[in-house]
Structure formats: structure tokens, C-alpha cells
Design brief:
Layout (H helix, E strand, L loop, with lengths): L3 E2 H4 L1 E6 L13 H20 L2 E12 L8 E11 L3 E11 L6 E14 L11 E2 L3 H27 L2
Parallel strand pairs: 1-7
Antiparallel strand pairs: 2-4, 3-6, 4-5, 5-6
């Protein structure tokens, strides 16, 4: 299986927010942003796996600032970690007021995807190459999040009657 670089599967999607996306105060609903996060991360994961993927978990989703009607929502997703059949995708969301040029870091999220074969069973993923210091840092942080997730699952299992 041929190795892939992070930039081979990274993706940026831009949407303009409309009234349909917002509440009566003109703030875009968090659920709308969550859907865009999942869709964009899924594209990056499918690019890396070169096939179907499913969202296994959202490890973390933090909102930092609001998004308003009229803003451009820029969602960037890239692979942070690759295991045997699963991978972590990091997502950064920015809102841009394209009239004033103001850009706000709106949200960050970490999602885990599982690659599936044609029979909907997990399939092996190609290894990934981390080229930049930032990619290596994100990979290290993702490996620690994975370790903590697995540790937490063990604790939860032990608590079941």
C-alpha cells in the first residue's frame, strides 16, 4: 500500500451562511456548523482511504466565536493520525466577514473515521507521511488523544455491571 502525504487528502470548503442556517438573532446554529465539519472531515478521510468511510466519533468540538448570516464559513480538514483501519481528522473552522475582511477562528474539532471496504467491513489504510513540524506535532497530539480514548473505554467497560 502506497504512503500518502497529509496534503494529498487535505481539503478546504467554503460556504456562505444564510438565514436558513441561523436563529432569529442571526447567529448560525452550532448544528449547521457541526454538519459542515463532519462533511468536510469525511471528504479528507475518504481521500486518504480512497474509499468509503464512516464517522466513528467526534472526540472534541470547541466553539470559539459566533458565525453570523452573511459570513463565509471556511472549513479546513486534514489527517492527523492513521491507524490500521481508523484515522483522526482535524478540522479548523473560520468565519470571514468578507466586507470588512475580519476573520475569526470559530471552531476546532477532532473526528475519528473508519475506512470500509465494499462489504462495509473495516479495511486497512495507507500509511501517512508527516512532512512539516506542524503535521508532526498534530500527529503526536492525536496519538495522545487516541491513547486517552482507549484508556477511557477500558475504564467505562470496567464500570459496567
Amino acid at each position: 500500500m502506497e504512503q500518502k502525504r497529509v496534503k494529498d487528502s487535505s481539503v478546504t470548503i467554503v460556504h456562505q451562511m444564510t438565514q436558513q442556517d441561523a436563529n432569529l438573532a442571526g447567529n448560525v446554529h452550532g448544528g449547521v456548523i457541526m454538519k459542515f465539519i463532519d462533511n468536510t472531515a469525511g471528504i479528507a478521510a475518504a481521500r486518504h482511504s480512497q474509499g468509503n468511510v464512516v464517522t466513528a466519533s467526534i472526540d472534541r468540538l470547541d466553539f470559539h466565536s459566533p458565525v453570523f448570516v452573511g459570513d463565509l464559513l471556511r472549513i479546513t480538514a486534514s489527517i492527523n493520525y492513521v491507524g490500521t483501519t481508523s484515522m483522526e481528522v482535524g478540522v479548523r473552522v473560520e468565519a470571514e466577514n468578507f466586507i470588512t475582511g475580519e476573520i475569526r477562528h470559530t471552531a476546532s474539532a477532532y473526528l475519528t473515521f473508519v475506512a470500509l471496504d465494499n462489504t462495509f467491513k473495516p479495511k486497512n489504510l495507507p500509511p501517512i507521511i508527516f512532512e512539516t513540524d506542524d503535521e508532526k506535532r498534530r500527529n503526536c497530539e492525536a496519538a495522545e488523544r487516541r491513547r486517552l480514548r482507549l484508556e477511557q473505554k477500558t475504564i467505562e467497560k470496567a464500570c459496567k455491571p
